[in-house]
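# nightly structure sweep
# worker-07 picked up a monomer target from the shared queue
# config: single-sequence mode, recycle default, output format = structure tokens
# input follows
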Amino acid sequence: MARYTQDSIERLRESVDTVAIVSRRTDLRRVGSRYVGLCPFHEERTPSFSLDAERGLYHCFGCGKGGDTIEFVMETEGLPFPEAVEQLAQDAGIELERDREDPREEERRRHRERLLALLDRTAGFYANYLWGAAEARRARDYLASRGLSEEVLRTFRVGYAPKAWDRVLMGAQRDGFKPDELLAAGLARRGRGGGIYDWFRERITFPLADSRGRVLGFGARAMREDQGAKYVNTPEGELYHKGRLLFGMDRARGAVAKSGRVVVVEGYTDVLALHQAGVEDSVAIMGTAFTGEQLGELARTAGEQGTVFLALDADRAGRDAMLRAARMAEERNVGLRVVQMPEGTDPAELVTDGGPEAIVSLLTKALSVVEFEVERVLDAADLDTPEGRDRALAEARDLIAATPQRSARRDHLVGKVADRLDIAPHFVTAVGGSAGTPSVPSAPEAPKPQAPRAAAPRPGTPGAASLGAERVFLALCLAAGPLGREHLARLVPDHFSSSLTRRARDYLTDHFHDPLAGLPSGDAQLDEMVAGIALEADNDPPKGDDSLRMSFLALELKRIERDLRRAREAGDFTEQGRLALAKRQVFDEMSSVMGQAT
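# output follows
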């Protein structure tokens, strides 16, 4: 970054129209020799922001922020001092004097300025070609099909590279640019015969700019399936470095600096759709290769108290990218939250179908880093085996142990893990034990009626116990004949914590009188479970109605408790009341059955 003389900076302060610059952020009205208005740095209803236009100074009596014009641009645009100075000078058409510039440095600067001018010229050419050329009609139709307006496309200078191999090359040379400069800017490439030709052809172009809006390269989308890669970028070179840039940051920085929030998505059209919907503090990382430099830029722009929201696609690559970013953010102490996107839907489709409220709703439900990692563990868990549940419990327990004791976040995570693994919450918070040897909690829950043992003793791990209760009930039903079939019919999918036991219930319903006759079913796990249940049912005599009812009520109690925890998290008091009554009724019925059994 060049150093500028103090005299030139002072002349800049004296020359800029402070009232015009501040008026971009808040409405001002003149009161005597000053201007007043609502503060652009915090929410207020009564004006406490004051501007001294003659001296170029501002102060807010509400939040205490104040300074000169340069500091105002730094605060509202999220720019460091040198870039704020350059931005003001560029907007005002003022040339800054450089302090003791080395001749070689001056040569490099002038070379860089020519490349920037070439790239800016090319962005303008592509943008004009998109709207004026018949060849670009298909591109216009595609962009319209994504719900993107002409206004937002023009704002972001989206364009179209013609099919001809030398349109940019010939036009740039007519304007005085040399072939070596076209190569250095990444706008041309050299062929096998030594000649050069346009790098981008027959593609929609998205200018990739730095935070000041200077075009450093392009991303380009193919319009035909036989064009090779769907997206190509400017080659890495003197100006363009993909891992440093964030698409849309030049347009988003003001909104980010004001809101203290930045929404990060994957693609160009996602950013365009979000800005069009009014979510102007959004940028794209252009894929899933999230870098430390990009995170640093986001953190600087959002500020110390700001938050980075990751709204990447819900596929495997997107989840992996969010996990990498979450770990980087934790190491750098950057506030980060993860937005859970619906499977198969990107932000552009979300706002097109549901409006801005759809993405805003997801932002309010964004997960912390720990919550995201716990979700990842649970999503990857093999819930059909005791070993899979125990491994997930051990991983989730380690993650939750790092959260503050007696916090709402910790309670939420404990409930989530307990629900998904179908175990008691104290197994999640147990300290000093392993998943295979559960610790005894220091404050045990109140005793509850227990169902009589109905089959072989269950193994002692939490994962085996949670699956065992469901398996035991299925064996009891099979052994009980017609009465058992009636109880099978009472089950709903939510009574089970495993897809395997759900499938077993469906299979037994269809093959109740002779379950082994339908094997093999083509599902090895199901065959093994059904065979085991049939063996247990043959070895155990029927237990009668009391055992069946108690076993069913135990599953019903777990189902209600899971629903009750979800209702508490959602703040649904009506549903909480309904479920609390249902839980009491189950307890009463269990007590009644136990009284009859004695």
